[in-house]
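Appendix C: a fully annotated inverse folding record. The material below is reproduced so that readers can follow the format used throughout the book. The structure is listed first as tokens, followed by the designed sequence.
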């Protein structure tokens, strides 16, 4: 009678056992969770020629951006749903406190009507822009080749929705003091027709129709989002302070904290992608493709910030500084 081999039971999940230590909460609830990566020929375990399967095979599996183990990626902040909500609950408490305190002091009544008109044109329509950031982040979440990347994109989408909500709230508040400026009425007109927004509208409409997940990541996280953050958050916040609008300056500062975290995970993903040397030229090629569109958007938007004559140059320098921080 042959001897039966007795297998020693694992002390943790098999896909986490190689690290030979107790896995963290982040690893347990985030790593190696995608089921649609198990069969490269049929991601959704049906007919390989099913439209959705062909989509994933073309735009994820066959992306020019390749790595032999995307599941090795880790979010530098190691956020999970629980800790993300704890973090952003504190952020929203801070934002609500700002809104309440400035409202109690009748902040908007002290604003110059000319500045209010500027806000109606270059701030209130930003909710359309933030929605495009949210939608593109959700697409990246859906198409990512690893659950650890999916998580980062999902939290990024949620942050974009928070930015949208803050903008909508302020739009309503401003409409109560400046009923003649078109707050809550003219945003779509400005978004679709005002020269200040046409660069960002073109940029984001093209990003939204970028199907390859790798190019979508580069176009969004390395090019479009930094341009939006530096122009529509940081630079507009600076101009707001010059116009006695401390509330908007502090609100955009709070939103930039999210942007900084988004750049951390994007930088970490680029660093890991460069384990495959061929990815360097792929990423550089996509940056070269998308950067001119972002520069055009920056120029158009910053031309509307008459109080900041060097705004476009400052914003472009900031986006270049971010790109220079990447190991490519």
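Designed amino acids, in order:
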């Amino acid at each position: 009678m042959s001897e039966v081999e007795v297998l020693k039971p694992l002390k943790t999940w098999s896909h986490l056992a190689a690290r030979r230590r107790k896995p963290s909460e982040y690893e347990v609830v985030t790593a190696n969770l995608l089921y649609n990566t198990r069969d490269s020929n049929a991601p959704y375990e049906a007919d390989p020629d099913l439209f959705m399967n062909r989509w994933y095979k073309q735009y994820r599996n066959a992306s020019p951006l390749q790595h032999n183990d995307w599941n090795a990626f880790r979010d530098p902040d190691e956020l999970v749903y629980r800790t993300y909500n704890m973090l952003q609950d504190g952020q929203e408490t801070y934002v609500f406190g700002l809104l309440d305190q400035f409202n109690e002091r009748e902040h908007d009544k002290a604003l110059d009507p000319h500045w209010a008109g500027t806000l109606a044109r270059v701030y209130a329509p930003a909710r359309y822009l933030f929605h495009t950031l949210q939608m593109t982040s959700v697409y990246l979440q859906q198409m990512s080749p690893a659950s650890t990347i999916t998580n980062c994109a999902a939290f990024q989408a949620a942050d974009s929705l928070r930015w949208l909500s803050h903008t909508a709230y302020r739009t309503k508040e401003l409409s109560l003091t400046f009923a003649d400026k078109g707050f809550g009425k003219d945003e779509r007109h400005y978004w679709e027709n005002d020269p200040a927004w046409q660069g960002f509208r073109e940029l984001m409409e093209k990003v939204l129709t970028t199907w390859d997940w790798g190019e979508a990541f580069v176009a969004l996280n390395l090019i479009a989002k930094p341009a939006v953050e530096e122009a529509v958050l940081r630079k507009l916040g600076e101009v707001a302070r010059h116009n006695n609008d401390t509330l908007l300056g502090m609100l955009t500062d709070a939103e930039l904290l999210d942007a900084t975290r988004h750049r951390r995970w994007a930088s970490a993903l680029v660093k890991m992608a460069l384990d495959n040397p061929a990815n360097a030229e792929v990423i550089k090629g996509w940056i070269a493709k998308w950067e001119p569109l972002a520069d055009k958007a920056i120029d158009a938007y910053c031309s509307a910030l008459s109080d900041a004559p060097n705004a476009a140059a400052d914003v472009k320098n900031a986006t270049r500084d971010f790109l220079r921080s990447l190991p490519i």
